[in-house]
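Protein modeling request. Please complete all fields; requests missing the sequence field cannot be processed.
Requester role: graduate student
Desired output: 3D structure, token encoding
Chains: 1
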Amino acid sequence: MKISFLLHHAYGVGGTIRTVFNLADALADRHDVEIASVFRYRERTRFDLRSQIRLTPLTDMRPGGDTEHPLHSEPARSYPASDGRYLQHSRLTEGRIKEWLANTDADIVIGTRPGLNALLARFTPPHIVRIGQEHLTHNSHRFALRTQLRNCYPQLDALVTVTEADAEIYRQSMPRLRVTAIPNSVPAPKVARSSGTEPVVIAAGRLVPGKRFHQLVDAFADVVSERPDWSLRIYGDGPERNTIQERITHHALHDHVMLMGAHTPMDAQWARGSLAAVSSSGESFGMTIVEAMRCGLPVISTNCPLGPAEIIRHGSDGLLIPVNDPAAMTHALLSLINDERKRRVMAHAASNNAQRFDPQHISARYEELFTELRRTRNSARRHRHSRQLVTLHTHVTYTMTEGLFRAARCVGRTIRRRTKN
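Delivered output (421 residues):
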């Protein structure tokens, strides 16, 4: 099959880019794969991309590229205005997207964010299977966007969410839409798994309010009071960096909590720790949870909507705790810090259980979906063709019968006239 992904841009380091690259790489073993990037901002991608995967930029935002094109300054007309990326789009970008959709020779086209999924639903030729991916969650979208999506998403052949919980919300909101939950994939680490001997807790993610890293720092202050030999390393950048640093200063934790900045990939950093911690108020999936587990770290996470509970098996490969409860985080951390045997058993389970997110397993689930959607599409096409043939046959039969009836009436009238004469 020819499979094409429509991606906002392929040249950054975001989670959507990473998981699309992982899936494309796994599918490329058996299929012809293309990634169409609406925007191009730099010469090379930040993540490695296999050479046989074709990367097709639609607009070039580098100096001397499409930034001076007259349509670039005109607002988009078809791209949903309520999508968070709307202001980055223009008549130029949506024109390039429509042109690419009209001319693609793909069997399957996969959109990767709401605005792109909306264009995919409206402008893809009907013979192509159209699949939308949701890397966020239904309830995280603003009301206006959800309203627009209810109008266009049912035109997709399927929508794929990363959690079953989110899939169920979409099914209730859009009952005419086929929704399937398939989690993101995470490849095996390229480094040896953690030895579990380093007294280090690792956390990673964008430094934004929803990650609640300041609460993790509060919890770790109490951990240090009992176990001063342990430290916390937080990887990532973002607008909350100063707030988190102030919290570290407030608790005098300069020797115990370090802001490490962003690292890509994270495998080597995870492997330097013995525990992972997630303090978020919400997660659409939880890529960092799976990454940590694949590197042999048990994960202590808030049981926030929607992803952690579908990844962590509480008490087996990690622990789930209430949201916004630093005391619960402190207790969970100390329970594993102080019990090395339990920590090692969980570490082994985490590494084994996370293998279900391997790209080969996830790509196989996508292939099953592709096959089923194509079979359903072909069956529907044959059904429409059969109905057309029945309609044509009925019309021809009716026409012939009507003709014979008229001919008989004409002969009858002729015979009656001759009999009278």
